[in-house]
Amino acid sequence: MSTDWLPSLWLDTFEEMLDDDNELDYGDQWILNFNYRQTDTLNQEERRRGWKVYSHCAFGKFKCGSCFRTWPSARVVVLFRYRLRSEAGRGTVIMRPFGQACRRCQDEYYLPGFSQKEVKEALLRLFAKIRKNCYGEEDEEEDRSVGSNKVRTKPHEKSLCEACTMGICCQDE
Which of 113, 96, 109 has the alpha carbon at shortest distance from 66? Predict the structure, then answer.
């Protein structure tokens, strides 16, 4: 697993799962974009325009840009906003990974690296939410406990977690 944040891994996996695996087989065209400032709060206008939010807790690895120390975390928040414009046949997903700061340097938040398997798991859960909220399908994933098969790492340090500072961390799940 890389410690580098690779948007291309997410984009390629997203496309592959739509094209090859037919995860959202409704004839609409879906795209994935990134916004590194988005929050989990939707205003009235965004809700009216059909935006929904899904927050996923993933396993990732980080690397400090100052001292090059690396560390794993089982509590990496990946935030997705999504909506379907059915009249246009287009769906949009906007994603934001949240960073963590190095315990030693504490100078800035670094974005995580993910394994292909972890990216697929996050996108599968996102697609289940999209099928439920945009197409009215039943959510088969609902009874599966989130993170039950995750490897736990050292205790979560809230002061070093970008998502914790914004009040949206998955630490309590």
Answer: 109
Per-residue pLDDT band at 140 (split at 50, 70, 90): low
Nearest-angstrom CA–CA distance, 72 and 1: 10
Residue 159, burial from CB neighbour count under 10 angstroms (0-12, 13-18, 19+):
exposed
Strands (E), 86-128: 90-97, 100-101, 109-110
- Indicate the pTM of the whole model: 0.88
Which CA distances in Å does 49 have to 26, 46, 85, 94?
20, 5, 9, 14
Residue 162 reports pLDDT greater than 60 = yes
The neighbour count for residue 9, using CB atoms within 10 Å, is: 17
Q: What's CA 119's distance to the chain center, in Å?
A: 8
